[in-house]
Write a structure and sequence with these properties.
Elements: H1 2-14, E1 22-37, E2 50-64, E3 68-79, E4 93-103, E5 108-115, E6 137-147, E7 150-158, E8 178-188, E9 191-205, E10 211-227, E11 230-243, E12 246-260, E13 265-274, E14 317-328, E15 331-341, E16 347-348, E17 351-352, E18 356-370, E19 373-384, H2 386-392, E20 401-409, E21 412-416
Antiparallel strand pairs: 1-2, 1-20, 1-21, 2-3, 3-4, 4-5, 5-6, 6-7, 7-8, 8-9, 9-10, 10-11, 11-12, 12-13, 13-14, 14-15, 15-18, 16-17, 18-19, 19-20
Length: 421
Protein backbone atom coordinates (compact mmCIF):
# COMPACT_ATOMS: atom_id res chain seq x y z
CA UNK A 1 0.00 0.00 0.00
CA UNK A 2 2.93 2.36 0.60
CA UNK A 3 4.00 1.85 -3.02
CA UNK A 4 0.51 2.69 -4.23
CA UNK A 5 0.38 5.89 -2.13
CA UNK A 6 3.81 6.97 -3.37
CA UNK A 7 2.78 6.49 -6.99
CA UNK A 8 -0.35 8.58 -6.48
CA UNK A 9 1.57 11.42 -4.82
CA UNK A 10 4.21 11.37 -7.57
CA UNK A 11 1.59 11.76 -10.27
CA UNK A 12 -0.13 14.59 -8.42
CA UNK A 13 3.07 16.57 -7.86
CA UNK A 14 4.20 16.45 -11.46
CA UNK A 15 0.91 16.56 -13.33
CA UNK A 16 1.18 20.30 -14.01
CA UNK A 17 4.67 20.08 -15.53
CA UNK A 18 4.07 17.60 -18.31
CA UNK A 19 3.11 18.22 -21.88
CA UNK A 20 2.39 16.09 -24.94
CA UNK A 21 1.82 13.19 -22.55
CA UNK A 22 -1.12 11.39 -20.99
CA UNK A 23 -1.35 9.97 -17.47
CA UNK A 24 -4.16 7.80 -16.15
CA UNK A 25 -4.55 6.39 -12.66
CA UNK A 26 -7.42 4.06 -11.81
CA UNK A 27 -8.26 1.57 -9.08
CA UNK A 28 -10.24 -1.59 -8.56
CA UNK A 29 -11.59 -2.99 -5.30
CA UNK A 30 -13.47 -6.28 -5.74
CA UNK A 31 -14.65 -8.21 -2.66
CA UNK A 32 -16.52 -11.47 -3.32
CA UNK A 33 -18.44 -13.70 -0.92
CA UNK A 34 -18.69 -17.38 -1.85
CA UNK A 35 -20.50 -20.39 -0.45
CA UNK A 36 -18.86 -23.47 -1.95
CA UNK A 37 -20.60 -26.80 -1.48
CA UNK A 38 -19.23 -29.08 -4.16
CA UNK A 39 -17.17 -26.76 -6.35
CA UNK A 40 -14.61 -28.39 -8.70
CA UNK A 41 -15.49 -31.81 -7.32
CA UNK A 42 -18.47 -33.54 -5.72
CA UNK A 43 -18.76 -33.04 -1.98
CA UNK A 44 -19.40 -35.86 0.48
CA UNK A 45 -22.77 -35.64 2.18
CA UNK A 46 -21.23 -35.66 5.68
CA UNK A 47 -18.98 -32.65 4.95
CA UNK A 48 -19.93 -28.99 5.25
CA UNK A 49 -19.17 -26.51 2.50
CA UNK A 50 -17.05 -23.39 2.95
CA UNK A 51 -17.89 -19.71 3.35
CA UNK A 52 -15.31 -17.01 2.70
CA UNK A 53 -14.75 -13.54 1.27
CA UNK A 54 -11.85 -12.89 -1.08
CA UNK A 55 -10.78 -9.49 -2.33
CA UNK A 56 -8.76 -8.09 -5.20
CA UNK A 57 -7.36 -4.57 -4.96
CA UNK A 58 -5.58 -2.96 -7.89
CA UNK A 59 -3.95 0.34 -8.69
CA UNK A 60 -3.46 0.81 -12.44
CA UNK A 61 -1.11 3.38 -13.94
CA UNK A 62 -1.02 4.21 -17.63
CA UNK A 63 1.26 6.57 -19.54
CA UNK A 64 1.19 7.52 -23.24
CA UNK A 65 3.57 9.61 -25.27
CA UNK A 66 4.20 9.81 -28.99
CA UNK A 67 6.65 6.88 -29.12
CA UNK A 68 6.07 5.06 -25.84
CA UNK A 69 3.33 3.53 -23.74
CA UNK A 70 3.66 2.20 -20.19
CA UNK A 71 1.33 0.10 -18.08
CA UNK A 72 1.73 -0.86 -14.41
CA UNK A 73 -0.83 -2.72 -12.30
CA UNK A 74 -0.12 -3.23 -8.60
CA UNK A 75 -2.29 -5.93 -7.06
CA UNK A 76 -3.20 -7.24 -3.62
CA UNK A 77 -5.19 -10.47 -3.33
CA UNK A 78 -6.37 -11.76 0.02
CA UNK A 79 -9.01 -13.72 1.87
CA UNK A 80 -10.59 -11.72 4.64
CA UNK A 81 -8.99 -12.87 7.88
CA UNK A 82 -5.85 -14.48 6.44
CA UNK A 83 -3.66 -11.76 8.00
CA UNK A 84 -3.77 -10.70 11.63
CA UNK A 85 -5.32 -7.30 12.32
CA UNK A 86 -2.00 -6.37 13.97
CA UNK A 87 0.26 -7.81 11.26
CA UNK A 88 2.95 -5.56 9.78
CA UNK A 89 3.92 -8.17 7.18
CA UNK A 90 1.68 -8.72 4.16
CA UNK A 91 2.85 -11.02 1.38
CA UNK A 92 -0.31 -10.69 -0.70
CA UNK A 93 1.05 -7.86 -2.87
CA UNK A 94 2.13 -8.55 -6.45
CA UNK A 95 2.93 -6.84 -9.71
CA UNK A 96 0.18 -8.00 -12.05
CA UNK A 97 1.44 -5.98 -15.01
CA UNK A 98 4.55 -3.93 -15.75
CA UNK A 99 5.16 -3.39 -19.45
CA UNK A 100 6.52 -0.85 -21.90
CA UNK A 101 5.54 -0.54 -25.55
CA UNK A 102 7.72 1.14 -28.16
CA UNK A 103 5.74 2.66 -31.04
CA UNK A 104 8.11 1.96 -33.93
CA UNK A 105 5.75 3.30 -36.62
CA UNK A 106 2.05 3.80 -37.20
CA UNK A 107 1.86 0.08 -38.08
CA UNK A 108 4.46 -1.56 -35.86
CA UNK A 109 5.02 -1.68 -32.09
CA UNK A 110 6.98 -3.75 -29.60
CA UNK A 111 5.60 -4.57 -26.14
CA UNK A 112 7.85 -6.08 -23.44
CA UNK A 113 7.37 -7.03 -19.80
CA UNK A 114 4.74 -8.49 -17.52
CA UNK A 115 1.47 -8.30 -19.44
CA UNK A 116 -1.90 -9.89 -20.01
CA UNK A 117 -2.14 -11.85 -23.26
CA UNK A 118 -5.72 -12.19 -24.48
CA UNK A 119 -6.94 -13.35 -27.88
CA UNK A 120 -10.35 -14.04 -29.39
CA UNK A 121 -12.77 -15.69 -26.93
CA UNK A 122 -10.11 -16.39 -24.23
CA UNK A 123 -10.10 -20.13 -24.99
CA UNK A 124 -6.34 -20.53 -25.51
CA UNK A 125 -5.02 -17.18 -24.23
CA UNK A 126 -7.02 -15.33 -21.56
CA UNK A 127 -6.47 -13.12 -18.53
CA UNK A 128 -8.60 -15.26 -16.15
CA UNK A 129 -10.33 -12.12 -14.90
CA UNK A 130 -12.73 -14.03 -12.66
CA UNK A 131 -9.87 -15.35 -10.52
CA UNK A 132 -8.84 -12.68 -8.06
CA UNK A 133 -5.16 -13.13 -8.92
CA UNK A 134 -5.82 -13.27 -12.71
CA UNK A 135 -3.07 -14.24 -15.19
CA UNK A 136 -0.22 -12.36 -16.85
CA UNK A 137 2.94 -13.42 -18.71
CA UNK A 138 6.52 -12.19 -18.91
CA UNK A 139 6.70 -11.80 -22.66
CA UNK A 140 7.87 -10.01 -25.79
CA UNK A 141 5.09 -9.19 -28.27
CA UNK A 142 5.67 -7.64 -31.70
CA UNK A 143 2.47 -6.14 -33.14
CA UNK A 144 1.89 -5.37 -36.80
CA UNK A 145 -1.31 -3.62 -37.93
CA UNK A 146 -1.07 -3.00 -41.70
CA UNK A 147 -4.62 -1.60 -41.86
CA UNK A 148 -7.81 -1.37 -39.84
CA UNK A 149 -8.95 -4.85 -40.91
CA UNK A 150 -5.83 -6.91 -40.25
CA UNK A 151 -3.65 -7.60 -37.21
CA UNK A 152 -0.60 -9.82 -36.76
CA UNK A 153 1.11 -10.52 -33.42
CA UNK A 154 4.30 -12.45 -32.78
CA UNK A 155 5.09 -13.31 -29.16
CA UNK A 156 7.77 -15.16 -27.26
CA UNK A 157 8.76 -15.84 -23.67
CA UNK A 158 11.75 -17.39 -21.91
CA UNK A 159 11.47 -18.22 -18.20
CA UNK A 160 14.00 -18.93 -15.45
CA UNK A 161 13.86 -19.14 -11.66
CA UNK A 162 16.81 -16.82 -11.00
CA UNK A 163 19.86 -15.07 -12.43
CA UNK A 164 22.02 -18.11 -11.76
CA UNK A 165 25.42 -18.36 -13.41
CA UNK A 166 24.76 -21.90 -14.58
CA UNK A 167 21.82 -23.54 -16.30
CA UNK A 168 19.39 -24.93 -13.72
CA UNK A 169 16.26 -26.97 -14.23
CA UNK A 170 13.29 -24.62 -14.39
CA UNK A 171 10.61 -25.19 -11.76
CA UNK A 172 7.84 -24.58 -14.32
CA UNK A 173 6.33 -21.85 -12.13
CA UNK A 174 4.92 -20.07 -15.19
CA UNK A 175 3.58 -23.27 -16.72
CA UNK A 176 6.27 -23.38 -19.42
CA UNK A 177 9.98 -22.83 -19.95
CA UNK A 178 9.48 -21.01 -23.24
CA UNK A 179 6.81 -20.24 -25.78
CA UNK A 180 6.49 -18.73 -29.22
CA UNK A 181 3.30 -17.85 -31.02
CA UNK A 182 1.85 -16.12 -34.06
CA UNK A 183 -1.71 -14.77 -34.05
CA UNK A 184 -3.52 -13.27 -37.02
CA UNK A 185 -6.94 -11.64 -37.15
CA UNK A 186 -8.76 -10.36 -40.20
CA UNK A 187 -12.13 -8.64 -40.45
CA UNK A 188 -14.02 -9.23 -43.71
CA UNK A 189 -17.42 -7.55 -43.80
CA UNK A 190 -19.66 -9.87 -41.74
CA UNK A 191 -16.94 -12.44 -41.15
CA UNK A 192 -13.93 -12.52 -38.89
CA UNK A 193 -11.02 -14.95 -39.08
CA UNK A 194 -8.36 -15.63 -36.46
CA UNK A 195 -5.51 -18.10 -36.79
CA UNK A 196 -3.28 -19.07 -33.86
CA UNK A 197 -0.07 -21.12 -33.90
CA UNK A 198 1.45 -21.67 -30.44
CA UNK A 199 4.61 -23.55 -29.46
CA UNK A 200 4.90 -24.33 -25.73
CA UNK A 201 8.08 -25.79 -24.22
CA UNK A 202 8.21 -27.74 -20.94
CA UNK A 203 11.62 -28.44 -19.38
CA UNK A 204 12.24 -31.71 -17.52
CA UNK A 205 14.93 -34.28 -16.70
CA UNK A 206 14.97 -37.15 -19.19
CA UNK A 207 15.85 -40.76 -18.38
CA UNK A 208 19.56 -39.84 -18.49
CA UNK A 209 19.01 -36.93 -16.06
CA UNK A 210 19.68 -34.47 -18.87
CA UNK A 211 17.75 -31.20 -19.00
CA UNK A 212 15.43 -31.39 -21.99
CA UNK A 213 12.72 -29.17 -23.45
CA UNK A 214 9.84 -30.79 -25.31
CA UNK A 215 7.46 -28.66 -27.37
CA UNK A 216 3.72 -29.01 -27.83
CA UNK A 217 2.19 -27.23 -30.82
CA UNK A 218 -1.36 -25.86 -30.67
CA UNK A 219 -2.75 -24.43 -33.88
CA UNK A 220 -6.02 -23.73 -35.64
CA UNK A 221 -8.56 -21.18 -36.90
CA UNK A 222 -11.54 -19.45 -35.33
CA UNK A 223 -14.28 -17.95 -37.51
CA UNK A 224 -16.97 -15.47 -36.48
CA UNK A 225 -20.05 -14.22 -38.30
CA UNK A 226 -22.48 -11.42 -37.45
CA UNK A 227 -25.47 -10.20 -39.42
CA UNK A 228 -28.03 -7.99 -37.73
CA UNK A 229 -29.27 -9.70 -34.58
CA UNK A 230 -27.69 -13.07 -35.46
CA UNK A 231 -24.14 -14.15 -34.63
CA UNK A 232 -22.17 -17.37 -34.84
CA UNK A 233 -18.64 -18.64 -34.30
CA UNK A 234 -16.68 -21.84 -34.63
CA UNK A 235 -13.16 -22.99 -33.80
CA UNK A 236 -10.88 -25.96 -34.43
CA UNK A 237 -7.57 -26.49 -32.63
CA UNK A 238 -5.16 -29.39 -32.90
CA UNK A 239 -2.32 -30.27 -30.54
CA UNK A 240 0.74 -32.24 -31.54
CA UNK A 241 4.41 -32.55 -30.62
CA UNK A 242 5.77 -33.95 -27.38
CA UNK A 243 5.65 -33.30 -23.65
CA UNK A 244 8.01 -34.98 -21.18
CA UNK A 245 9.10 -37.47 -23.85
CA UNK A 246 5.51 -38.42 -24.66
CA UNK A 247 3.80 -37.87 -28.02
CA UNK A 248 0.81 -35.52 -28.09
CA UNK A 249 -2.21 -35.90 -30.37
CA UNK A 250 -5.34 -34.03 -29.26
CA UNK A 251 -8.13 -31.92 -30.72
CA UNK A 252 -10.76 -29.29 -29.92
CA UNK A 253 -13.96 -28.28 -31.73
CA UNK A 254 -16.58 -25.69 -30.83
CA UNK A 255 -19.57 -23.95 -32.37
CA UNK A 256 -21.92 -21.26 -31.07
CA UNK A 257 -24.94 -19.35 -32.31
CA UNK A 258 -26.76 -16.40 -30.79
CA UNK A 259 -29.81 -14.34 -31.61
CA UNK A 260 -31.08 -11.10 -30.10
CA UNK A 261 -34.85 -11.51 -29.92
CA UNK A 262 -35.44 -7.93 -28.79
CA UNK A 263 -33.58 -5.02 -27.27
CA UNK A 264 -33.73 -6.82 -23.92
CA UNK A 265 -33.72 -10.57 -24.61
CA UNK A 266 -31.10 -12.79 -26.25
CA UNK A 267 -30.83 -16.53 -26.90
CA UNK A 268 -27.78 -18.66 -27.54
CA UNK A 269 -26.53 -22.19 -27.76
CA UNK A 270 -23.50 -24.21 -28.66
CA UNK A 271 -21.16 -27.08 -27.98
CA UNK A 272 -17.54 -27.82 -27.15
CA UNK A 273 -15.57 -30.99 -27.66
CA UNK A 274 -12.19 -31.48 -25.98
CA UNK A 275 -10.61 -34.82 -26.78
CA UNK A 276 -9.71 -37.24 -24.02
CA UNK A 277 -8.20 -40.64 -23.41
CA UNK A 278 -10.01 -43.88 -22.62
CA UNK A 279 -9.23 -44.98 -19.08
CA UNK A 280 -8.34 -48.48 -20.32
CA UNK A 281 -6.00 -47.13 -23.02
CA UNK A 282 -2.50 -48.42 -22.25
CA UNK A 283 -0.82 -46.30 -24.92
CA UNK A 284 1.40 -43.64 -23.35
CA UNK A 285 0.48 -40.93 -25.87
CA UNK A 286 -1.26 -37.79 -24.60
CA UNK A 287 -4.69 -37.66 -26.25
CA UNK A 288 -6.38 -35.15 -23.93
CA UNK A 289 -6.65 -31.60 -25.22
CA UNK A 290 -5.28 -28.90 -22.89
CA UNK A 291 -6.76 -25.37 -23.16
CA UNK A 292 -3.44 -24.08 -21.82
CA UNK A 293 -3.66 -20.39 -20.84
CA UNK A 294 -7.36 -19.78 -21.36
CA UNK A 295 -9.91 -18.18 -19.07
CA UNK A 296 -11.28 -21.61 -18.29
CA UNK A 297 -13.84 -20.43 -15.71
CA UNK A 298 -15.70 -18.84 -18.62
CA UNK A 299 -16.30 -22.27 -20.19
CA UNK A 300 -17.89 -25.60 -19.23
CA UNK A 301 -19.89 -24.41 -16.25
CA UNK A 302 -19.02 -21.89 -13.59
CA UNK A 303 -18.59 -24.52 -10.86
CA UNK A 304 -15.18 -25.26 -12.40
CA UNK A 305 -15.42 -29.04 -12.69
CA UNK A 306 -13.33 -29.05 -15.84
CA UNK A 307 -9.95 -27.53 -16.74
CA UNK A 308 -9.72 -25.07 -13.83
CA UNK A 309 -6.70 -26.63 -12.16
CA UNK A 310 -8.24 -30.06 -12.75
CA UNK A 311 -9.36 -32.62 -15.36
CA UNK A 312 -6.06 -32.35 -17.24
CA UNK A 313 -4.93 -35.53 -18.98
CA UNK A 314 -8.33 -37.09 -18.35
CA UNK A 315 -11.23 -38.38 -20.45
CA UNK A 316 -11.94 -35.04 -22.13
CA UNK A 317 -15.34 -33.41 -22.35
CA UNK A 318 -18.35 -32.79 -24.54
CA UNK A 319 -20.38 -29.80 -23.36
CA UNK A 320 -23.75 -28.89 -24.93
CA UNK A 321 -25.24 -25.68 -23.60
CA UNK A 322 -27.83 -22.97 -24.13
CA UNK A 323 -28.28 -19.47 -22.74
CA UNK A 324 -31.11 -17.04 -22.13
CA UNK A 325 -30.16 -13.47 -21.29
CA UNK A 326 -32.12 -10.39 -20.27
CA UNK A 327 -30.90 -6.82 -19.84
CA UNK A 328 -32.73 -3.57 -19.26
CA UNK A 329 -31.28 -0.29 -18.08
CA UNK A 330 -28.94 -1.12 -15.18
CA UNK A 331 -30.14 -4.71 -14.64
CA UNK A 332 -29.02 -7.92 -16.35
CA UNK A 333 -29.64 -11.63 -15.87
CA UNK A 334 -28.61 -14.84 -17.60
CA UNK A 335 -29.26 -18.56 -17.19
CA UNK A 336 -27.02 -21.19 -18.82
CA UNK A 337 -27.75 -24.94 -18.60
CA UNK A 338 -24.99 -27.39 -19.56
CA UNK A 339 -25.14 -31.09 -20.41
CA UNK A 340 -21.76 -32.75 -19.80
CA UNK A 341 -20.45 -36.06 -21.07
CA UNK A 342 -17.03 -37.67 -21.24
CA UNK A 343 -15.34 -37.58 -24.65
CA UNK A 344 -13.62 -40.90 -23.91
CA UNK A 345 -14.52 -44.05 -21.99
CA UNK A 346 -14.78 -44.09 -18.19
CA UNK A 347 -14.38 -47.36 -16.29
CA UNK A 348 -15.31 -48.43 -12.78
CA UNK A 349 -12.91 -51.29 -12.42
CA UNK A 350 -13.63 -53.48 -15.45
CA UNK A 351 -17.11 -52.02 -16.00
CA UNK A 352 -17.54 -49.42 -18.72
CA UNK A 353 -19.69 -46.53 -17.51
CA UNK A 354 -22.20 -44.44 -19.41
CA UNK A 355 -20.49 -41.34 -20.79
CA UNK A 356 -23.01 -38.90 -19.30
CA UNK A 357 -21.53 -36.81 -16.48
CA UNK A 358 -24.48 -34.66 -15.50
CA UNK A 359 -26.19 -31.33 -15.91
CA UNK A 360 -25.19 -27.97 -14.48
CA UNK A 361 -27.38 -24.87 -14.32
CA UNK A 362 -25.73 -21.46 -13.89
CA UNK A 363 -27.68 -18.33 -13.00
CA UNK A 364 -26.25 -14.83 -12.67
CA UNK A 365 -27.75 -11.38 -12.14
CA UNK A 366 -26.11 -7.97 -12.21
CA UNK A 367 -27.01 -4.41 -11.33
CA UNK A 368 -25.01 -1.30 -12.15
CA UNK A 369 -25.17 0.89 -9.03
CA UNK A 370 -23.16 3.66 -10.70
CA UNK A 371 -20.84 4.15 -13.66
CA UNK A 372 -17.97 2.64 -11.66
CA UNK A 373 -19.82 0.39 -9.17
CA UNK A 374 -21.35 -2.98 -10.07
CA UNK A 375 -23.14 -5.62 -8.02
CA UNK A 376 -23.23 -9.20 -9.32
CA UNK A 377 -24.49 -12.43 -7.83
CA UNK A 378 -24.91 -15.99 -8.95
CA UNK A 379 -26.07 -19.47 -8.08
CA UNK A 380 -25.04 -22.74 -9.71
CA UNK A 381 -26.06 -26.33 -9.10
CA UNK A 382 -24.83 -29.55 -10.66
CA UNK A 383 -26.87 -32.74 -10.97
CA UNK A 384 -24.18 -35.38 -11.37
CA UNK A 385 -24.33 -38.97 -12.57
CA UNK A 386 -22.70 -42.09 -11.22
CA UNK A 387 -20.03 -41.70 -13.90
CA UNK A 388 -19.13 -38.28 -12.51
CA UNK A 389 -18.91 -39.85 -9.06
CA UNK A 390 -16.50 -42.49 -10.37
CA UNK A 391 -14.45 -39.81 -12.13
CA UNK A 392 -14.38 -37.20 -9.36
CA UNK A 393 -15.22 -39.00 -6.13
CA UNK A 394 -17.62 -37.51 -3.60
CA UNK A 395 -21.38 -37.98 -3.48
CA UNK A 396 -23.51 -37.30 -6.55
CA UNK A 397 -26.66 -37.10 -4.41
CA UNK A 398 -25.32 -34.39 -2.11
CA UNK A 399 -26.31 -30.75 -2.59
CA UNK A 400 -23.50 -29.82 -4.95
CA UNK A 401 -23.98 -26.08 -5.39
CA UNK A 402 -22.27 -22.71 -5.34
CA UNK A 403 -23.50 -19.20 -4.50
CA UNK A 404 -21.66 -15.89 -4.68
CA UNK A 405 -22.11 -12.13 -4.36
CA UNK A 406 -19.52 -9.64 -5.67
CA UNK A 407 -19.10 -5.87 -5.59
CA UNK A 408 -16.77 -4.24 -8.13
CA UNK A 409 -15.56 -0.68 -7.61
CA UNK A 410 -13.51 0.73 -10.54
CA UNK A 411 -13.02 4.48 -10.07
CA UNK A 412 -10.79 6.65 -12.24
CA UNK A 413 -8.62 8.46 -9.68
CA UNK A 414 -6.63 10.78 -11.89
CA UNK A 415 -6.33 11.59 -15.58
CA UNK A 416 -4.26 14.17 -17.41
CA UNK A 417 -3.86 14.87 -21.09
CA UNK A 418 -2.63 18.09 -22.68
CA UNK A 419 -5.14 20.44 -24.22
CA UNK A 420 -4.96 20.54 -28.00
CA UNK A 421 -6.23 23.35 -30.22
Amino acid sequence: MKKMFFLFVLLTLFSNTISAQQFDLSAEVRPRYENTHGVKTLINDDVDGANFISQRTRLNFGFKQEKIRLGVSLQNVRVWGDVSTLSSNDNANALHEAWAEAILSDKLSLKLGRQEIVYDDHRIFGNVGWAQQARSHDAFVLKFVPDENNKLDFGLALNADSQAGIDNLYSNAAGYKSLQYVWYHGAFDKFGLSVLALNTGIEYLDSSDEQTIDYTMTFGPRVTYKSGDFNADGAVYLQTGKTRNTDVSASYFSGNVGYKISDNVSLGGGFEYLSGKDQNDTNADVKSFAPLFGTNHKFNGWMDYFYVGNHGGSVGLTDIYASLGFSKDKFSAKIIPHIFSAAADVYNGATKMDNGLGTEIDLTIGYKLADNIALNAGYSKIFATETMEVLKGGDKDANNSWAWVMFTFKPKLFSYSPQTN
